[in-house]
Known about the structure:
This protein is of the alpha/beta class. It contains 16 helices and 27 strands. Helix 2 (29-45) crosses helix 3. The protein is globular and about 70 Å long. The two termini are 39 Å apart.
Amino acid sequence: MNVTHGLRRALRLNPQGIAILEGERQLTWSELGERVSRLAGALRQHGVAKGERVAVLMLNSTRYLELYLAVAWAAAIIVPLNVRWSVAENRDALEDCGARLLIVDDAFMEAGRSLAAAIPGLDLVHADEGEPLAGVARYESLLAAATAIPDAMAGRDHPAGIFYTGGTTGRSKGVTLSHGNLTFTALQSLAEGLFPPDGIYLHAPPMFHIANGWCMYCTLLNGGTSVVIKGFAPETVAQAIERFRITNTLLVPTMIQMFVDHPGIDRYDLSSLRQILYGASPISEALLDRAMARLPGVRFIQAYGMTELSPLATVLATEEQIGAGRAKGRHRSGGRAALGVEVRIIDANDQPVPPGTIGEIAVRGDNVMLGYWNRPDETARAIIDGWMHTGDGGYMDADGFVYIVDRIKDMIITGGENVYSTEVENVVAQYPGVLQCAVIGIPHPQWGEAVHAVVVVKEGASFDPADLIGFCKERIGGYKCPRSVDVRTEPLPMSGAGKILKRELRRPFWENQDRRVA
């Protein structure tokens, strides 16, 4: 089974059903199948052989979804590039994977020309409606001139994509995921009930990221409809929900915060929305409560995982976040291992630890990546006896619920005590006027590190850092509380996946120190 299976299935069962909607444009499954098979032929005619890499640097669009399918149809490997990266960072990724082709839209044509000029053998294709440029091939022209080809039927162990990690903890690595990895996770997610069979899914997160890619593969396999918007903005999402009767989407916590706190969304009919998957970073209890109150008919389901896990590891159902589940504190967990996946907590010697003991979260299953592209040593350190070492610290209770306490690199050691930043952030987020927050460790001559909070305040809110510290001391141990607070009005630095870049917040404090600079 491979990632084009969902398309082939839809072509048999529902050829005239709506596959994709974007603005005024719509494609039936039959039309999508024709374009994908011709686009795969165009890739072949352009010199892309089986196993070669096709990079994409584009905003969300129907063509992006076509490329995911067409590259797989041709048994090539897609490399979605981060639209928030600099030209230098994307050049590093392109040279690392040895891409044969780079496909860009209007927004990234200038960057694309710079990259093609700098990398020998890299061809450029323009996939948008803008003015044609001399010497640059056009997506639609290539497709129109191409002959459709049959699905190459790549095997389950064949690489389907190289997804470069967000680089939140250091230099980015190319995570190589196979057709088997991606189809396993899609089937697993459908078995968990994460995607309704009649679903209309909104592509609000960036399509280059594996989290949205995962939802795309699930929607395709389920025969659902994909609705595409160029990028996330609260009112754009609300407009799409009303217009296209969206049933489900994926949002990271920062997007949820921006959406539910936006005063304009009350003007829209959001009654079709039934489910929001969330993940990529922890959500505060205060934000989750606000979101549930603002969208009372919506199920909120947390999915924990990482790119290296295709990306799903655990699932926390809505029922565990309310009622009896909340009374047991399960709303603070990442849920239990998804179907077909094993999760355990290990110590520094790779040995399982007892329930309730903090260690590193390790995951085993058919979702574990093939490896890091061209990095066998790093792959060997990450995957040991089939277990993916996530780099996340956490513990498991007696009922199998996994509680993520922090990235191991984000743990703060102050006076010999371990402080997990997410625990402190959950408290800081409850303080009136807090819009965004991040907790980091900064150098301290006596304790080694001190807890430091970076807070973005709501417009017009009064804010007293000393009162915030007192607020925290009433709720958590004094050694965990911020010793200092940086109050800002501008948003915190974010990765393309919507994660706060803590290394950027730490850098000014640690750049002349011996540790924490990565």
